Amino acid sequence: MNMPPDSGNLLAGLNEKQLEAVTLPHQSALILAGAGSGKTRVLTTRIAWLIQTGQVSPQGLLAVTFTNKAAKEMLTRLSAMLPINTRGMWVGTFHGLCNRLLRAHYREAGLPATFQILDSADQLSSIKRLMKVMNVDDEKFPPKQVMGYINSCKEEGLRAHSVEAYDSHSQRMREIFEEYDKQCQREGVADFAELLLRCYELLGREASIRQHYQSRFKYILVDEFQDTNRLQYLWLKLLAGQGNNKEHNCIFAVGDDDQSIYAFRGARVGNMRDFEEDFNVQSIVKLEQNYRSHSNILDAANAIITHNRNRLGKNLWTSAGKGEPIRVYQAYNDIDEANFIVDEIKMLHAEGVDLNQIAMLYRSNAQSRVLEHALFTAGLPYRVYGGLRFFERAEIKHALAYLRLIANPEDDTALLRVINFPTRGIGARSLEQLQEAARQQSCSLWQAAINKVGDGRPGKGIEGFVALIKQMQEESIGLTLPEMAELASNLSGLRQYYLGEKEGEDRIANLDELVNAAVAFMNQDIGMQVDENGETQSLLTQFLSHASLEAGEHQADAGRDALQLMTVHSAKGLEFKTVFISGLEEGLFPHEQSMYEASGLEEERRLMYVAVTRARQRLYLSHAQSRMLHGQVRYGIPSRFLDEIPEELLKRLNATASPSRMAQADAYQNHTPAPSQKDALPWKIGQSVAHSKFGQGVVVSYEGNSNDLRVQVNFGREGLKWLALEYAKLEKI
DNA sequence: CTTACGTGAGTTTTT
DNA sequence: CTCACGTAAG
Fold first, then answer.
1. How far is the C-alpha of A351 from the C-alpha of A196, rounded, in Å?
2. Best CA proximity match to A86, nearest among A71, A99, A101
3. What protein residues sit with their CB closer than 7 Å to strand C?
């Protein structure tokens, strides 16, 4: 068993470029991995190869991803390739790895051993609470905006004291930021961005810790590099030992600038170019052979993305044939579009295509409604991505809050969540008194409660709550994790409460599921209890971190044969036999809030590129001449992205609209009749027009009378224009 | 404390 | 239009 497997075996089946990437010598490298080019395979094979050829031990490398799913997949594939125990390897998300590091060095990081992780919802409520204390006007400072500000500062690597603020508004923002961090520190909690920033600061400050990890992780591998933000890049640089004039560790970065679709949340594609420079990258390996799609689809994707200026440059190709033409359907309205898609799906399904191999992609979540309605009417099973996740459900968060209080009662966020849930007669005024007391004594709410009622007596009110938490803490000693989960649900009265609720059965089922999740967690992670210092971490704390960092499946029954409905963003990384991209209209896709700025438009185009490259065999693109949006009928012109695809790749299907479908669409249209006066005017809404300067457009609205009529025309890329008919040369087409 | 009503906003999302 | 949120009333 000491014989290493034959490395040729490992490398078998790789193409030339993949092989080059996998077997690169010890130097930093940038792998430009196109969609469907075997990116994950290259990444995992690289790890396996490094280990197998003895260049590094499993403990000597670190691989980082953005999602838990990607990390899990990497580990799964890795253990299939190598006879090693992947447990204990440093493969995980940025947040997961930082959490691990902070747990190992919590003292040096200035955190309590049991520090809890705030998810976005926790963070927001924490900010709201703080703003109340600070007497901040939440009209001038919307909490969500404050949260965005704090997070983006942290993601730039900045603390409040180093943020620039010249006007009073931003100075106040900075002040809230500073107080918020103090509050978190007091309560022993860390938000997501804090995990990264705290870890970065720890490594920067503590030379011995930094050197320990620098000498340990000779190889660092990064997935989806184009999605890294500034802080993540700084963290990587520090960990690699880059910048202190010595030889640094090498980073193997895999990414695709053409699939960078997260600039809006701080991702910096520019990190790719910086990386080339900072790490003296000798050559970029481009993986351009695509194993997913037929060439018509790839040609369309290539044609679209060529319209972007800022690219590293890459062209996908395939040895598969042309395949089917890309089908384009111009719908009368959104209902017609949905019905068309449903008809096509019925046909495909009848031909034997599995429903879960068909995806319906859209730019924004609101578009799913019409599609769902049509699917529901047709009796087709579907599942929509993007709902609440398991650990985000209210009843689960309640139960977790009790668990958090067992681990650390100073956690004000957790305390406030459940101090009166289920209700135990603690109203707004007793809460206010408690918060006032805590403020005066500058202590946690829990401490204030103790000071007020002593050890608490069973019964009602704050006394009862204090007694309850103490009882939980005592009874949980020696219990296993699942038993604790059960204790939290039962002793708190949560289960009892939901028993009395009309629709409480699902919630109770979820509470049971939490116990199951605890069992699964115990079985799975039992080997990870010992941290770097050899200290045993509380399993409870680990479980709570897990709950925050990995919110669980997006929805249940993932295995069922059902159509897949999701935004283009959530489709990234997935592939389907057949893909429908709907709503291809100017203003929707590209979205109007992004289309007037070059960088925004380019990101929209990359989004379209991602959408198109999801399809293996068949791709449908559709747009509607009118659509219900925000309760109003809107008229749109076809997306420019459609124009960017060479006509010879397309097959236009408009003529095949079935009479029954049109009837349904018409019925809908009649519900919103236009005023008859408007119909009498020569320029109807929805009329296609041509303008000498602006090109083609659609009349969207108008004002004035027949003598002095002004029409608003949507010219797509030229935007919305008001035109006085008296002067503008407009022609109907 | 719950329920009803009014108001306003309305891309994309992982951790 | 539709949902989420906040306030006012019961």
1. 50
2. A71
3. A 128, 369, 628, 630-631
* Chain centre to alpha carbon of residue A136: 30
Beta strand A720-724 with A710-714 is: antiparallel
Q: Nearest residue to B2 (CA, C1')? A: A423
* Residue type (1 letter), A123: Q
Instruction: Give the number of other Cβ atoms within 10 Å of residue A411's Cβ.
Output: 25
- Alpha-carbon distance of A17 to A625, in angstroms, equals 45
- Lowest-confidence pick of A18-22, A50-54, A559-563, A703-707: A703-707
Residue A440 parent element (H or E): helix A428-440
Query: By C-alpha distance, which of A243, A242, A231 is closest to A94?
Result: A231
pLDDT at position A412 over 80: yes
Tell me the mean pLDDT in the region A666-683. Answer: 44
The string of DSSP codes covering A592-649 is: TTTTTSHHHHHHHHHHHHHHHTTEEEEEEEEEEEEEEETTEEEE-PBPHHHHTS-GGG
Query: DSSP label at A161?
Result: G
Chain C bases near protein Cβ (<7 Å): 1-2, 6
Q: How far is the CA of A194 from the C1' of B7 (A)?
A: 35
Burial of A161 per CB tally in 10 Å (0-12, 13-18, 19+): exposed
Q: Give Cβ neighbours of residue A212 (< 8 Å, ≥ 6 apart).
A: none
Residues of A marked as catalytic = 39-40, 223-224, 259, 614
Q: Is A140 exposed, middle or buried (0-12, 13-18, 19+ CB in 10 A)?
A: exposed
Residue-wise pLDDT tens digits, A60-77: 999 999 999 999 999 999
A619-661 confidence digits (pLDDT tens) = 999 999 999 999 889 999 999 999 999 999 999 998 555 666 7
Q: State CA A205 to chain mean position distance.
A: 31
pTM above 0.90, yes or no: no
Mean pLDDT of chain A: 88
Summarised one tens digit per residue, pLDDT across range A470-488 is 999 999 999 999 999 999 9
The residue count for chain A: 733
Give the start-end residues of each E strand in A467-605.
Answer: 563-567, 576-581
Residues with CB under 7 A from strand B: A 66-69, 93, 95-96, 119-120, 192-193, 261-262, 264-265, 363-366, 386, 420, 423, 425-428, 549-551, 554, 566-567, 569-570, 591, 593-594, 600, 630-631
Which of A111, A62, A638 has its CA nearest to residue A410?
A111
Q: Which one, of A244, A217, A226, lies nearest residue A284 by Cα?
A: A226
C-alpha distances (whole Å) from A641 to each of A305, A307, A332, A613, A657 are: 9, 9, 19, 14, 23
pLDDT tens per residue, range A602-625: 999 999 999 999 999 999 999 999
Looking at residue A259, what is its pLDDT? 98
At A652, list the tokens: 């236009």
Reported as a pLDDT band with limits 50, 70 and 90, residue A370 is very high
Asked whether A591 and A604 are in contact (CB, 8 A), the reply is yes
Residue A434 · residue A214 · CB < 8 Å? no
